[in-house]
Structure formats: C-alpha cells, structure tokens
Amino acid sequence: MRKISVLIAKRHTTSITLEDEFYDTLKEIAKTQNRRVSDIVTEVDSKRGTRSLSSAVRVYILEQIKNRK
C-alpha cells in the first residue's frame, strides 16, 4: 500500500491510499492520456459521490482498463 499526496483542483492537498499495482497503473494511464495524476484524481473527486476517494480512483482505473478492449 502506498499513501500518495495529491493536489486537488489546484487548491488543496489530500492523500489517497492505493496498492502499488493500482498506483503504477494510474501513472501509466496518466502518461497515456498526457495528463498529470493530480488532474485525473481531481476529475474522479468531482464525480465520486459518497464513495471514498481512494475507492473511486480504483474504480476509475478498472473502468479505464475495461475500456481498452
């Protein structure tokens, strides 16, 4: 598990906890999309509803992997 500090919406810092495999995949997705990890996390944060941010990021990663096919 890795605790990552992320700047959300260029306003405040928060942290998420992800398994190394999820974090590595998130970085890969960001690189593929020419985006920063913080930009992706900001997007996920704005759409997550009541789900925890870490959980919402994991779901985002899963959806991205499923959509590759």
Describe the fold and architecture:
This protein has helices at residues 20-32, 37-47, 53-67, and strands at residues 2-8, 12-18. With 69 residues, the chain is an alpha+beta fold. It has a single domain (2-67), classed as Orthogonal Bundle (Arc Repressor Mutant). A two-stranded antiparallel ribbon has the order 1-2. A hairpin with a 3-residue loop joins β1 (2-8) and β2 (12-18). The longest helix has 15 residues, at 53-67. The radius of gyration is 11 Å and the shape is globular. The relative contact order is 0.17.
What's the structural blueprint in terms of helices and strands?
Elements: E1 2-8, E2 12-18, H1 20-32, H2 37-47, H3 53-67
Antiparallel strand pairs: 1-2
Helix pairs in contact: 1-3
Please sum up the structure shown.
By secondary structure, the protein is α+β, with helices and mostly antiparallel strands. The protein is 57% helix and 20% strand.
